[in-house]
Amino acid sequence: MGDLEALELIAPVDITEQKKLPEMEIAPKMQPKGGQTASRQVNMARIDESPREVPATVSTAQNHVKARPSTDRFEIGKLDSDQDAGNGSGRGDGTGDGTGLGDGDGDETVAAAVSENEPPPPPPVKKDPVKEKPLIKNMGVVNSIAIRLPLPAIPAAARTANAAGTVSVQVLVDEDGNVISANAVSGNILLRSSSEAAARNARFTPTKLSGQPIKISGVIHYHFSG
After folding, report:
1. Residue 214 burial class via C-beta count within 10 angstroms: exposed 0-12, middle 13-18, buried 19 and up
2. What is the DSSP secondary structure assignment for residue 130, as one 8-state letter?
3. CA-CA 20 to 30 A from 39: which of 29, 72, 77, 142?
């Protein structure tokens, strides 16, 4: 006989279909609860970032625009605002506590803070019309303080009647020392008109009160002999 080959009989293996394992369900990505996305007026780099381009100009003016936040989530808008970390919607009636913690319901309106402790403005000062009225000082008889005192002319009628006596003329002098009114208050009627005319040409030194020029009033006496 030739070479004998040893053969081993192996029972067939029962091949069964393996069950497919269930796929793991992937939990959806958590979205931040509430909160408002940060916004910027311009997409300006922060100072901690390396500049991408060398600036062409250098300005010393203060920059009031905020740089972009460290988070990648921000949008370009009309205001510079940061992301709200609280649970509020940011669309409430403006009654939030203003702590900036995101738990209020204030809206997006930027309101100016008014201090309740600030005192009210003082009431307007009413001007007293009596105090505002120009002061006139009565000087009595002013013959001695006149720097120019012309003598009155004697009218022909007064000469014929041999009129004599003292004529008193009430005068009002302005701040520059000029007579602005003259009115005879006593004396012979034939001598009053000429006395008033002479008094109007008189001149006085300006009078001051606390350094302020004032008007004065007084009486000029003219003596006539017969």
Report:
1. middle
2. H
3. 29
